[in-house]
Design a protein that fits this description.
By secondary structure, the protein is an alpha+beta fold. The chain contains 2 helices and 3 strands, in the order βββαα. The protein has one domain. The chain is elongated and about 65 Å long.
């Protein structure tokens, strides 16, 4: 008798960015299927959002997904995507 093989569900993956430099009292939240950015000043929140968008564009260019990319490669992509 053959044992039934189960398909494994892909592990869920989600990036979370948290800005801690908010002094103006605004509550900022940007969210999508695979990322959430919370808090920060207007400038910080904008930079984090830009970084995440560029990160996902690069993943797409490389034909990879957040749930499958190696942590070291993801860190390199994020570093490269971060505005200076």
């Amino acid at each position: 008798m053959k044992k039934a093989t189960r398909r494994r569900k892909p592990k869920p993956a989600h990036l979370l960015g948290v800005g801690l430099d908010n002094k103006d009292g605004h509550k900022r939240l940007t969210s999508a299927e695979e990322f959430t950015i919370v808090g920060g000043s207007e400038e910080t929140h904008g930079r984090m959002t830009e970084t995440v968008i560029k990160t996902f564009e690069e993943l797409k260019t490389r034909g990879k997904h957040l749930r499958t990319v190696e942590p070291q490669e993801l860190a390199e992509i994020i570093h490269k995507a971060t505005p200076r």
